[in-house]
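Hi U.,

Before I forget, here's the chain from the pilot set. I'm dumping it here mostly so it's searchable later in email.
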Amino acid sequence: MTDSGGDSLGQDELVILVHGTFAGDKDGNDEGPRWWQRGSDTWRWLEDNLPAGVSLPHSGRLFHWSGANTQSARLSASMELLALLVELERKGRPYHLVGHSHGGSVIWEALLTSHVLQRGGTLAAHLYYPLVRRGVVTGDASGTDVTGSRFLAERYRQVSQELELGRLRSWTTIGTPFLCHLPQGGLLATGWREGKFSLADAVSRRDVRAPRWTMLLALAYMLLVFFPSMVLSLAFSWFELSWIIRLVWLLLAALGLKYTFRVTARGEVAHALMIRARLARSAFARFHSRWLGLYAATDEAISGLRTLCPPDAPGYSQFFVPAAQREVPRKPAGAWPRVPTLLRLNAPLKDIALAPQASMGYGYYYPGSTPTGGAYGLINKWLMPSVNAALAKRLLRTGQGCDVPYTDLVHVSTWPLPLDGGAAGLPDRVNTALETNAMAHAGLLGLEVRQMIARAAMNGNRLTGVVTGRQPQISTKALVHTSYFDDQDVLRMIRHHIATSSRTCRTEAAAADAASDVREWIAAARERVAGRATQGGGRSLPR
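Structure:
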């Protein structure tokens, strides 16, 4: 899938570019116009301006991922990225990471996963397989690739040093909306809305292990309920009950088994989310000194995702208050806007005001005959609001990209943790330039669309063919979120951060071509991040 370490025998520190949502290449091309591809404008600028001793990968595969707007896709991509980083660590190759949009989320999830695995002393199966494909760890000799807990713990020892990520020199995120997912809760699982939910407890190695009660619960139900019910229901004579009763009994047992599996899955997901959320603070304290986050105040993706968060979500720091000290119950401070009933069922017409006279039928549809007329009214009154609410909820989670079951997107932040950064993510001058440029291109976009329609009309072409054949060339520049790399100051800030983080070119950092106000802003941003990383809301972030 990826092989950015293909030229790892060189001594230069490597820069790995990670694209965001919808920015991948469906054909898997390494060359192209996208900012992260070889030959693009951004690629050529970096090639010409990266400091001595730092370079882009000149050979081998670049890092690719699907770019789908789902949390599951981002998590899978983070495992692939972490496998690549472990390979570079094994080869002794220092590296820098640059991610745009959800590419920054992929980077953060990879760093967080390395921290979680180190605390637990084991590998995850989804990381084990990419490591095997890269030849970093050895697969199962039997060829069955059984990934039990003991097996993964043994393979962890092969890469425990590499998971320190000691050769990570810097990581830069541009326009990244960092997502904080927490468990919904339910039977045998505590959710973030419950008063007893807390992330304050320390995490031990035993805590990181997968919960055993989930497997025991499923096994107990199968042995004590499902299998006996199946045997009894299939027996030829069971207290002389009819086959219909026995079939109903079997179906109930099967539904119970399905519900049991849902309870166990919910428990495992909640446990994994809790561990990651509790360790996120110490992971940020570990990696914050190498991070630079750049984001515009009017970034459409960040502000848009924030509007999709629950309106009654408590502040991030409140989750780290011990449950005994929290007010119980916590009343919601707000609620989602009421969803209008957009979908309704139209009752069959009985008559129509059409001249000359027309009949829509006889008897059943005849005026005055209403055997089904009231049914449609009842459905629209009682059923369709629930259908609309379920559809709205599904559309909301799709917009959030939250496809992991039993989880909620609770916070969206410009920092890896939902902390108040206290300042904008770019110097005021750069922020204003990005906004002005986006507004100018937004006006030109309307002109170009009108020109496309006019050409289609004059040439007798269908509009759909014109649009599919030629997309507006300036549409991406009409958004701040997709135009960061068109700004020279943003590129110079990325270059400056890499230069000051590199161990081969620190002496030339002062001569980096970023403007003096930009260099001062970066220095101030690092101090601000360091202060928040060691003092999160008045509470220390544990290592």
